[in-house]
Every structure is written in C-alpha cells, then in structure tokens.
Amino acid sequence: MAVTRVKVGGKVVDAQSGFRAYSRRAIENLVVAEFGMGGDSEIIMKADRAGLRIVEIPVASMYSGLDSSTHNPVMHALDVFFSVVNFVSIRHPLLFYGGFSIIALTISIIFGLMTLDYYQRWGVVVTNIALVSVASGILGFLALFTSIILFTLITVVRESSSR
What is the pLDDT of residue 129? Predict the structure, then answer.
C-alpha cells in the first residue's frame, strides 16, 4: 500500500504480497502487535526502523481461474492505513498528536476571533461559530495533553528497557 511505501522511503513496491523470507536476526527483532492485514505493513516498517535489509524479488503471477480475495478491498485498505497511523502515533506521539493539536487550536482561535468580530459588529453571538471554536479548542487541548502523556510514557518505557 502507498502509505507503507511512503513510511519506509519507497523501499517496497508491494507491501501486501504475503510471501516473505526472514533472517534469524529479523525474527528475533520483529515483534508485531497488529493482527489482520495491517501486520504486513507493521513488519516492513519495523524492519526498516531496525535497519534490516529489505529486498523485493519480482515474481510472475497468474490469477486466471482463481477467485478474487475474500477480503473487502475498502476494509483491507483501512486496516493497513490505520496500522500505519497506529505505528506512527506510538513512535512519534508529539509529532502526531501535537500536529493535530496545533491544527485544532488554530481553528479554535480563528473561529473564536470570528465570533468576537460578529459580536462587536452586530451585537450577536453566532452560536455555530462559537461552538466550533469551543469544540476545536477542547479537542486541541485534549490532543496536546495526550501527546505529552504518551511521549512521557514512551520515554519511560524506552529508558527502563535499555537498562
């Protein structure tokens, strides 16, 4: 899937081929938490992060006379996409949740200023705009606190496992 290809810097053309060969070092280092179709992407991303060599060997396939996949293609794509999102959110919580927090807080400020502007001009509070401001502010602060808490937890776990 394209999301996996982007995450590992274009090293993989087909992340979902299903046929793999692993060295002993790879087997010892790759612990996978995902189930389902997202597991393939997680293995490739962890192998890349661990500095393991990833090699693709092209094979010819013939699918004539065979039934198509039993998996719904939309569900398959969503499964892989959310596996990548999960991987990135755990590896880089400040970037992932902090980025969302900045966007949400910016929206909150913009809509808050719009609410104040309407009130100053016409003496009316436009509740829809005010609610968007408040809701995005709450989401922004929630994401900010989540990023800080996850970053702290992950740092503590990494430090304790390296001892």
Answer: 97
Q: What pLDDT digit, counting tens, does each position of 21-35 carry?
A: 777 777 777 766 656
Euclidean distance between CA atoms 4 and 37, whole angstroms = 12
Helices (H) and strands (E) in the chain, counts: 6, 0
The one-letter amino acid at 96: F
- CA torsion, ordered 81, 84, 85, 91, to nearest 10 deg: 180
- Using an 8 Å Cβ cutoff, are 114 and 129 in contact? yes
Which of these, 61, 62, 64, 28, lies nearest to 46 by C-alpha position?
28
Residues 6+ apart with CB under 8 A from 42: 32, 33, 34, 83, 87
Domain boundaries, the chain: 1-61+70-91, 93-163
Q: Which two tokens stand for residue 135?
A: 């809701």
